[in-house]
């Protein structure tokens, strides 16, 4: 298959994973935002967890400052992800790196980490990221407009979509080496523990768990070298 | 509201684009590269759990849905069908 077509398919896959989540966002936003605001939120913020958090805080009538800080902390995990992507795109011009970085999400990051070296360049990343982005924005609006048509059960069931996508992305890596399973499971445990400690903000808990689990991978690698 | 959305835009874009300025052709030590290579797998673990427990109506349904997705993935089912398959599976659980 042509490599660009392959990237387009990857973008579609993420986009279809977004579809139910984006629709759920549109449906949830309806009582709180206008159609234009719902569109702008997905168009400019482009972050599922951040957008849902903002809605949640809006309905709890939190202050604007509190919402902004919470979203900043929650979204700061993208710093680590974007760092890795920029490392892979080191040879590209700055404006290209900036453009790609602006569209980093958990899903596009996880998928792009697993693609072949031949596709780790500006064009392929752009195709994957922008395709996913279009789905996110379009289906937020569709959800807003058509929310009532979907039954409540389907909306609830679609909550599994992103998790199914994450699991589907993790399994092939585990197949190549069990050390990836160890790192992923440690990440799960750490995140669970940090979440249980209520004094740690959720955004910080994610970053801490992510970096510590990756450091464990580094330790595994180092020990492997010596043996 | 538009002002808030714009502020949220800034709050989310800053952390995303900052690394583009930092990673400017400089050489990284080997340990950092190895660490970066593990980040995706650590991130996937962190993103899956404990969020999976609150993904759908009950934690058990979430875990069953996750297991179903895992089985499909082990059989090398294409991504799109894993995602839509898991939704249909959870729909019938509810």
Automatic annotation (TrEMBL), chain A:
One of its GO terms (cellular component) is plasma membrane. GO terms for biological process: L-valine transmembrane transport. Keywords: Cell membrane, Membrane, Transmembrane, Transmembrane helix, Transport. It is found in: Cell membrane. It comes from the Bacteria. It is a multi-pass membrane protein. The chain crosses the membrane at residues 12-33, 53-74, 125-147, 153-173, 180-197, 203-220. Belongs to the AzlC family. This is 4-azaleucine resistance probable transporter AzlC. It comes from Lacicoccus alkaliphilus DSM 16010. The lineage of its organism: Bacteria, Bacillati, Bacillota, Bacilli, Bacillales.
TrEMBL record, chain B:
It comes from the Bacteria. InterPro entries: Brnchd-chn_aa_trnsp_AzlD. The chain crosses the membrane at residues 35-55, 67-93. Pfam families: AzlD (PF05437). Keywords: Membrane, Transmembrane, Transmembrane helix. This is Branched-chain amino acid transport protein (AzlD). The lineage of its organism: Bacteria, Bacillati, Bacillota, Bacilli, Bacillales.
